[in-house]
Write a structure and sequence with these properties.
Blueprint: H1 3-19, H2 35-40, E1 50-55, E2 62-67, E3 71-76, E4 98-99, E5 102-103, E6 113-117, E7 120-130, E8 135-140, E9 145-151, E10 163-164, E11 170-174, E12 179-180, H3 191-194, E13 195-204, E14 211-219, E15 223-229, E16 237-243, H4 252-255, E17 261-268, H5 269-277, E18 282-294, E19 299-311, E20 320-326, E21 329-334, E22 340-345, E23 351-355, H6 356-364, E24 368-372, E25 375-378, H7 380-383, E26 384-388, E27 395-400, E28 405-410, E29 415-420, E30 426-431, E31 436-440, E32 453-458, E33 474-480, E34 487-494, E35 501-505, E36 535-539, E37 542-550, E38 553-555, E39 558-563, E40 567-574, E41 583-587, E42 595-597, E43 602-607, E44 613-618, E45 631-637, E46 646-648
Parallel strand pairs: 14-19, 37-40, 39-45
Antiparallel strand pairs: 1-2, 1-35, 2-3, 4-5, 6-7, 7-8, 8-9, 9-18, 10-11, 11-13, 12-13, 13-14, 15-16, 16-17, 17-20, 18-19, 21-22, 22-23, 23-26, 24-25, 27-28, 28-29, 29-30, 31-32, 32-33, 33-34, 36-37, 37-38, 39-46, 40-43, 41-42, 41-44, 44-45
Bound molecules: (dicuprio-$l^{3}-sulfanyl)-sulfanyl-copper and dinuclear copper ion.
Amino acid sequence: MKNSTLTGWGIFILFIITSCAPKGSDDKASPFSDDVASKVYVAPGQFDEFYAFLSGGFSGQMSVYGLPSGRLLKVIPVFSLDAEKGYGFNEETKPLLQTSYGFIPWDDAHHPELSQTDGVPDGRWIFINGNNTPRVARIDLSTFETVEIIELPNSGGNHSSPFTTENTEYVVAGTRFSVPVPQKDVAVETYKENFKGALSFISCDPVTGHMNVAFQVLLPAFNYDLAHSGKGASHGWTFFTCYNTEEGHTLLEANASQYDKDFIAAINWKKAEEYVKQGKTHDFPTSYYHNVYDDNSHMATSEQIKSVKVLIPDECPGLVYFLPTPKSPHGVDVDPTGEYIVGAGKLSADMSVHSFSKMLKAIEDKAFEKEIAGIPVLNYDAILAGVVKSGGLGPLHTEFDATGNAFTTFFISSEIVKWKVGTWEVLDRAPCYYSVGHLMIPGGDSKKPFGKYMLALNKITKDRYLPTGPELSQSAQLYDISGDKIQLLLDFPTVGEPHYGQGIPASLVKPKSKQFFNLADNAHPHVTKSEDQAKVVRDGNVVRVYMTTIRSHFAPDNIEGIQVGDKVYFHITNLEQDWDVPHGFGVMGATNAELLIMPGQTETLLWEPLFEGVFPFYCTDFCSALHQEMQGYVRVSKKGSTVPLKWWTGSSK
Ligand code: RUQ
Ligand code: CUA
C-alpha cells in the first residue's frame, strides 16, 4: 500500500549511487607525488607507528593492522570459530561462545572500541559488539586474545555498541531492533504496545575489566543505531541515535523514512546511577550468559544470569531527553571538547550539530516540543549549534583530529569532507573508492586525537584490486591528514567487512605485550608441569591424556589401550618458557580443529575415535629443525578390548 513511498527513496538512493561518482574517480591512478610511497613504507625489520583494530563484520572477528604500512598482524577470533588457533574448538574457549541459545559459533562484529582513561585510549582492552545474538566482547591487549563475552538481555541486534565512557566506567549498548520486553509470543501488529528498545550500561571493573550489565533503560520501540559517550563537558552523558521513530515494523525503507526528524537520545547516566542507588529499578526476569577466560587457569567459564535491573524513564525525571535530528541519523559523534554532538542524518544533505551547553540550557528552560512516553523532546532550534553545508550526500560518521577539524564520511557521494568545528566551514574533501562507511583517525573519538592518519573503511571495492571471483576483497584506504589537504596514501584489503576501527600509538600497547605464560602460575585443572608427570587416566569411557610438548617431542608419544566409543581428552601443556614457541596438535580424524598452545599454556582437544586402528598425531606449528619429527601414535582397539592402557616416550614402560 505504501509502495510508492518506498520506491521514492529507493530510486533516489539508487540514482545517487549510480550518478554521483566522486570527482576524480576516473583517474584512479591518481597523480601521486613520489613521496607518497615513502610515507607508507616501513622498512623490513622496522615497526609501524600505530596499531589499527578493524572489525571483521560478518566474519565475527577483529583484525589488527600496522599503520601506515597496512600490514596485517593478527586476526583475533572473537565471536566466530577460528580453526587456525583452535578458538571455539578447544575445551578452554568453548564456554566463551555460550549464550542463552546454546553454543553460537558466529556473530556479526561492527565496532571495536578501546578502553579509555580520562577520555584517552589507554591500550588496556578493546571491546567489540556482536550484533546478531547481542553480545559484547573484551579483548586483552597484553595477549590480543578474547577474554570475556557478555550477552545482552532484552536486546535484538546489538548495533549501537560498545562505546565507552571517559574512564571506561561503562561500555554502552543499544538495541537496533526493538523487541517484546520481556520476550513473549505476540502479534507483530502489536508492535507499538508490546515492543521496547533497551539501552544497556555495562559496567567495567577498573582493575580486572570484568563486565556486568549494571542497568538498562527502557525506551520506546525505535531503532537505536549508534552511540558515543560524552567527554569533558559532557562526561556523564551518552548519546544514542535512533531511526524509525515512526515505529514501523514492515517495509522500513519507506515506513521509517516518513518523519522529517528522528532523535538522538541523550542519557544522563550519572543520574541513572542515583536512581539505581535509590532503588528505582525494576528486576526483570531474563536469561543471559557471562563468560570469562582466566589467564592463569587458561580456561573460560560461563555463568547464567537470570535478572536485570531496568529503569523506566517515565519514573525517572531528568534521565532521558530526545534531541530532534534530521532524517534517520546513523552515526553520533562527540567532538574532543565534549561540547558538540554531531548527528549524521543519512537521508539529509546538511548535518546538524547540537550544542551540549545549549542542551543543558534548554532542559533548564524547559524548551520542550512535546513528550514521548514521559521523555521530553527538546526544541530543535534551542539546541542547534550549527549546520555543516557539506555538499555531500548520505553522511554517516565523523571523527576528529587534534587541531579542531572534523572529518565526515558520505556514503552516497563516496567521499570524506573535512570541516572546521565551531565555524562549520568546509575545508577540503577527498574521494573514497568506494562508498565509505565508517572512518577512523587514531584517537579520533577521544578527548585527545592522535591524528596524523585517517582510514576510510569502504563498503564497495569494485575495480581496486585483482578480481577474486564473485566475492571481491574488502578494503580500507589510508590518508595523510597532517597537512591542510587530505592526501590519499594507500589502499589495502581487509579481513571481513570493516565497519568501525580504532587506532592507537604502538608505544601504548607494545611494551605490555605478553611473551609467554609462566608455567609455575599455570592453574589449569589438567596441567602437566613436567614430562615425568605425563600420564593417561581412564575413568569409564572418559580417557584423559596428560601430555606435554617441548622441542621436539610429545610426552607421551605412544599410547595404547584406547577403545572405540571413548571420549579422549588430550590436555596438552606447552612446557616452553620462551617467546614465539607455540606448539600445535592435530590428531587424525578429530572432528574439530588443531590446538595451538602458547608457551606455558594448557589446552584440551576432545577426540572420539570411531574406528579401530593406529592413528598418528603431530605438531602443526613449525617449531624447530626437528618439527617434522614431532609426532606420535594412538592405538585404538575395539570396545571392551583387553589391550591394556599404556603410554610411553622413548622406551616402553
Ligand atoms: S555501521 S557504516 Cu557502524 Cu555497522 Cu555505520
Ligand atoms: Cu612443535 Cu612443531
